[in-house]
Design goal:
The complex is a heterodimer of chains A (99) and B (135). Chain A is an alpha/beta fold. Chain A has one domain (2-98): STAS domain (Transcription Regulator spoIIAA, 2-Layer Sandwich). Chain A has four helices and five strands. Chain A has helices spanning 26-36, 55-71, 81-89, 92-95, and strands spanning 2-9, 12-21, 42-53, 73-77, 97-98. A five-stranded mixed sheet of chain A has the order 1-2-3-4-5, with helices on both faces. In chain A, a hairpin with a 2-residue loop joins strand 1 (2-9) and strand 2 (12-21). In chain A, helix 1 runs parallel beside helix 2. The mean pLDDT of chain A is 96. Chain B has 135 residues and is an alpha+beta fold. Chain B has a single domain (2-134), classed as Histidine kinase-like ATPase, C-terminal domain (Heat Shock Protein 90). The radius of gyration of chain B is 15 Å and the shape is globular. Classes of the chains: A alpha/beta (99), B alpha+beta (135). The interface between A and B is medium-sized, with 25 and 26 residues.
Chain lengths: 99, 135
């Protein structure tokens, strides 16, 4: 179960994730971002209520980071220690901007 | 020891996780460790569901054992599909910049890094992958 809340302001897009980013829900995020990223230069994720992330979720973050490297910036905030540890283990801490 | 047999299909993942979470919660597993074990289960089960039975479907058996003090959990995944040892995969290079990182290959790498022990054997026509974690 994943709730995705998007709000945009000019070229900024804020995406709040709540729940689990996994095999079942990652395609949903990928689809929603695919439709919303056009023209976005400033992408902000809020992971405060993200409880879980597996490799399927990491794949979407990586492909989104690759897109944003071409058109602007991507920042992830409020990551829980548990999710942060997964970023550390996979080296994602080095390629994502985590605040 | 508790056992669950399911069709090796991604759609069964939630049932496998519900089965595991009940046992882990009864054993007093912390939320953090439960998440790590759930990740390992997801990665391994999705691998089996995706690769074990390429033509017709098949089943996967998940066995969960906690030791008598309840501080070590051992989970075994068994399937009768194509012989495949995921531990032989080369680890992804996690120092590459985003542009050069392949999309994928992280699942089993995560399992190896967040579990205490991971082992594989092929015997009697079955793949058996076992993970252990203390908590």
């Amino acid at each position: 179960m994943l709730n995705i809340t998007k709000s945009s302001n000019a070229n900024e897009l804020k995406v709040v994730l709540e729940g689990r980013l996994d095999t079942a829900t990652a395609p949903q995020l990928e689809t929603e971002l695919g439709e919303a990223l056009s023209g976005v230069t400033d992408l902000k994720f809020d992971f405060e209520k993200l409880e879980y992330i597996s490799s399927a979720g990491l794949r979407v973050l990586l492909s989104t980071q690759k897109i944003m490297n071409k058109q602007g910036s991507m920042v992830i905030s409020n990551t829980s220690p548990e999710v942060k540890e997964i970023f550390d283990v996979t080296g994602f801490s080095d390629i994502l901007k985590i605040e | 020891m508790k056992q669950l047999t399911v069709n090796a299909q991604t759609s069964e993942l939630s049932q496998v996780l519900a089965f595991a979470d009940t046992i882990l919660e009864e054993a007093g597993c912390s939320a953090k460790t439960k998440m790590q074990i759930d990740i390992a289960i997801e990665e391994i089960f999705v691998n089996i569901a995706t690769y074990a039975y390429p033509s017709e479907g098949g089943q996967a058996v998940i066995e969960i054992e906690t030791d008598k003090d309840g501080k070590i959990v051992k989970i075994t995944f068994e399937d009768q599909g194509v012989p495949y040892n995921p531990l032989e995969n080369e680890d992804p290079d996690i120092t590459l910049p985003a542009e050069e990182r392949p999309i994928g290959g992280l699942g089993i790498f995560m399992v190896k890094n967040i579990m205490d022990e991971v082992s594989y054997e092929y015997a009697d026509g079955k793949n058996r992958l076992t993970i252990k974690k203390s908590f």
